[in-house]
Design a protein that fits this description.
alpha/beta; Rossmann fold; 4-stranded antiparallel β-sheet
Amino acid sequence: MLELEQVSVFYGDVQVLFGVSLEVQKNEIVAIVGSNGAGKSTLLKTISGVLRPRSGSIRFLGEELHLLSSFNIVRRGVAQIIEGRGLFPSMNVYENLLLGGHCIRDKKKRESLLEGVFDAMSILKQRQFQSAGLLSGGEQQLLAIGRGLMSNPKLLMLDEPTLGLAPKLIPEIFNLIKDLREKGVSILVVEQNVRESLQVADKACVLREGRIVLSGSGDSLLKSSELREAYLGA
């Protein structure tokens, strides 16, 4: 579904990603883990068209994605949930969700997507006329994910979805990720919660200083002595 081949990205003269290659298949959860400054967010921004690769290629369903605008990338079926959520706090839940479906022209399709979001996250239906800024941290993260789902993505990219959440809420986010995969949405997730993300991932990559240094199944990386020493403290 998604294929990155030897992607290198710069901020001005500073190189941040060095020849990154990875694939996401249909109905697959792929986790990218690594420490702060490893280039994880840069990688997602490059896929979504916010940044442009200096070299390499990004293909989605066979199409050269890196040649398209961010708007057209969303229309092709790729949605990103940014770190920090990016909600409009003075607007209510319903209005924030409608903004996520701005690229869906068919009204009945938008209504169907909205019902799907409410079915998956019933708390959003209960809070639909409440200002987004008054939601709890966990509810805001669900709203951010729901807004992404309103674009009807084939691939959903999540940047640090559990950042700043209470520990008891973290399993809820990962359970939602698994549920979305079961409903046919492929997932690319960037996370600092290494253990939890590897437990749900079909495949995973470790990004260090802009390079993929380890890759494999989530289970195999959990058992990797190098990863355990570097990230799990074991």
